Structures are given as structure tokens and as C-alpha cells.
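User: C-alpha cells in, sequence out, please.
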């Protein structure tokens, strides 16, 4: 879980200790950590995707799904730390809001799911 400032409330299910959980944060103050949760301190201002990948390697995590907002996804895309992207394209066009990440890759497959399209990209 990316939680730069440790803002996730301690009573949220993701922090209930029922499954192994790793929180990536900038907060070094151990008193803010919750028992039975692993924490790793990262520098969120520089090379975040690389730091996250290094941390995953340290924890022997070889396969992950990055499900984040536009900024998090774009960070991994810019660092070229991706091997597959699944992009849903809906029929609704939004005029305002946060722009979707920009991905350049080869479209491997395209499937229609009800009124949407799912594209699978590889670098």
C-alpha cells in the first residue's frame, strides 16, 4: 500500500493484519506504525518506481499489479517498469478531471466487453 503520510485510518480492513501487508511511506516515526504490518520508508520525491521495485525485490515479490491513480501509473510507465497494461475504454467522454496516463506500447489484444473495450498493451 502506498501511504506517503500514513493517512489510512488504522481501523480500515487493509490494516487489520488478516493478510500480510506492506506499507510504503515517508514517515519514519515508528510510533505511528501499526503492529503486524510491515513498513518501508521511501523518498517519494525521486525515483519512486525504482524504489518500490527494489523494495518488492527485498520482500521476494516478483509479480505485482499496480492499481493506482494517474500519477502512480505514469511513474511506472516513465520508468519503463511495466510489462503489461490493461486499459479499459468506455463510451463516456469526460471533459474535466485528471487525464489518464499516457502509454505507448504495442496493442496485443482488444476485446469488447458489453459497451467497453479492453486493450492489452506490451512495451
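Assistant: Sequence out:
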Amino acid at each position: 500500500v502506498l501511504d506517503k503520510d500514513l493517512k489510512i485510518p488504522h481501523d480500515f480492513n487493509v490494516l487489520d493484519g488478516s493478510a500480510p501487508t506492506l506499507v510504503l511511506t515517508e514517515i519514519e516515526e515508528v510510533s505511528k506504525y501499526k503492529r503486524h504490518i510491515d513498513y518501508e520508508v521511501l523518498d517519494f520525491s525521486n525515483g519512486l518506481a525504482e524504489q518500490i521495485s527494489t523494495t518488492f525485490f527485498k520482500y521476494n515479490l516478483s509479480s505485482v499489479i499496480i492499481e493506482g491513480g494517474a500519477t502512480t501509473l505514469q511513474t511506472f510507465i516513465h520508468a519503463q517498469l511495466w510489462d503489461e497494461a490493461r486499459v479499459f475504454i468506455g463510451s463516456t467522454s469526460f471533459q474535466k478531471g485528471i487525464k489518464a496516463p499516457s502509454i505507448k506500447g504495442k496493442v496485443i489484444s482488444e476485446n469488447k466487453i458489453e459497451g467497453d473495450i479492453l486493450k492489452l498493451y506490451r512495451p
